[in-house]
Amino acid sequence: MSAASLEQRILGALRDIPDFPEPGVTFKDITPLIADAELFAEVVRAHAQPWQGSVDAVAGLEARGFIFGAAIAVHLGLGFIPVRKGGKLPGPTVGVDYALEYGTARIEIHEDAVAQGSRVLVVDDVLATGGTAAAACTLLESCGAVVPGVEILVEIEALRGRDALAGRAVRSLVTV
Ligand SMILES: O=P(O)(O)OC[C@H]1O[C@H](OP(=O)(O)OP(=O)(O)O)[C@H](O)[C@@H]1O
Ligand SMILES: Nc1ncnc2[nH]cnc12
Questions:
Q1: How far apart are CA 20 and CA 176, in angstroms?
Q2: Which residues form the signal peptide (predicted)?
Q3: Residues involved in catalysis
Q4: What is the pLDDT of residues 49-87, one digit of tens each?
Q5: Are 56 and 77 in contact (CB under 8 A)?
């Protein structure tokens, strides 16, 4: 009997929560996956490996993108840029409003967070409508970053988030 693939193990470690945070949404809960130390480490390695030596910083999207993004940054020996929800960062910020599967939000970064021309990898856990990831790419680029790719753990194919990121290199470890 062959060992389960990383993809199968990720799928087995995600939990579907029906009608959260609102009726009609099936929430993909990553908490069982990150509770599994070995699987969490393998996921971080799988996200990071293709980017070794080719990016300058990693940006993670609050809040769940911080969990993976920060770990990927450490794995690659790079600094981390927190892309935060509106009103959370203490210094002068730049931000953008956007829509996601359930509602609207605002993301911000510190106005000096990006070194001009630096290559910044964008990381998040879930790609649904793509509103969040697209807003983050636009925001980082407006501050002088080059975004060579977007790393996603779970892509919800039916919501067509890739369409919002057309022309970008989007890699998801699993598709549901
Ligand atoms: O593709 P989209 O439709 O934009 O949705 C994806 C986003 O939604 C979730 O974040 P959420 O805003 O719920 O924040 P959280 O990580 O703080 O729970 C998820 O972590 C992504 O960031
Ligand atoms: N269905 C979903 N599950 C988890 N995070 C999400 N972000 C947007 N849609 C989501």
A1: 17
A2: none
A3: 64, 101
A4: 999 999 999 999 999 999 999 999 999 999 999 999 999
A5: no
